[in-house]
Amino acid sequence: MKHHETGAPDDETADGPDDVDHPRAPLDAHSAHRIALRYREWSLLDGGGRAGRLEADRRIEDSEEVSQRVLHDLDPLPLLDALIALGVETDDDGAFLDRVSTGAIEDVLNHRADLHQQIADRCRAEPSWSEAVRGARIDDKLASRLPSPLPDLFPVPVPGAPRIDAPGRRNGRRPSRRQDRTGRRGGRTV
Prior knowledge:
This protein is mainly alpha-helical and 190 residues long. It has helices at residues 29-46, 50-58, 60-72, 77-89, 95-111, 116-125, 127-134, 140-145. The radius of gyration is 21 Å and the shape is globular. The N and C termini lie far apart (69 Å). Mean pLDDT is 80; it is low at 1-18 and 166-172.
């Protein structure tokens, strides 16, 4: 009797309904705090010297766990609460809270519309949440659709002011002074 062979190699899994990330149950406060501590340790290593960044690369799963939980947990707010509390407690001139803002908070705002009202409620109740949300970057169209007080936390662009992501700028940056306005190869960059 002949066995059916698939076109997929044995060591790879085929994409199918089992490969979809299913929502996970919310974390309790203790588990959320443990994950937040591991994420902060990873963040400190990632922001350090070469040896620290190499160790952070080996421990990347600590960062990826936060990203996955924020995007796929039924209720990632306990984890976000723990991350924000840790960011406020940490004496690092706001570097960790900035990372939380531009990472986890930004992901939630951009990809989890189901949580916008709960985040707005937390921002009204807790100044630390407002501070964390203020550090996230989102586009103007999304900011205008967010429930109050969230739109007020994002700066309104000044009419006529150059945008960071304006066309003609590579990677949203101005050319260095050494390169002048023409760039390295003589082509206009601005």
